[in-house]
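name: query_chain
kind: protein
chains: 1
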Amino acid sequence: MPILRISTQLHKWVALVVGVQILFWVAGGLVMTAIPIETVRSEHHVREVAPAALPASSLQALPAAARALPGGVTRAELKTTPRGSAWVLTPVAGDPLVLAADTGRPFPALTPAEAARLAAEAYTGEGRPRAAVHLAEAPAETGRTGPIWRVEFSDRERTTFYLWPETGEVVTRRSAVWRFYDFFWRLHVMDWKNGEDFNHPLIVVTTFLTLSVVITGFILLWIRLARDIRLARAARREP
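structure:
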């Protein structure tokens, strides 16, 4: 039967080509459903801190703070940070400028001891801060650019907090669980370098081929079931 022969050949050879990726999809799906996303994001290691009120009477007004950017400001944000109230000023061109809201000047540079202390204050768990390291360029796993502080904890998950150098805020959390999850995510979306693009041609073609495996599988199943039914009926008719 031509359709049986064609379906068998397509099913066999295409499955051989995409079989490994199908395994990665299933394994990645298992990892992503078995591990709670809150654990991946280390949310269980985030200490809940009540928001602090801004000391309005001692703050620099925006016009005074904005004088640090003669070219003009396109956005200004006043917020509370672990190092005190801060103005975050976004210029017309260039990176945002962070100023202490009470003095209108940049915060003093973070020291390793202060970075470790701020990370510990933002953390809850059985671990303790290890060495705090200032990095001139943020690692790719942070999804950020520019300088950053990295503080690792001695817990089982090897939790890592990344702090913004100016304010000491924890801007990214990573762990061995996150890296394990990220490995399978990259396999799942077939973007092994960045794990960000899941619409690239390779995954589209592979998905199309996988669909052909499923369709030919159903065709083979239907043909074989129909044959078995015919044989069973013929056997019952025999005296």
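note: Strands lie at 73-81, 84-91, 97-100, 129-135, 148-153, 160-163, 170-174.
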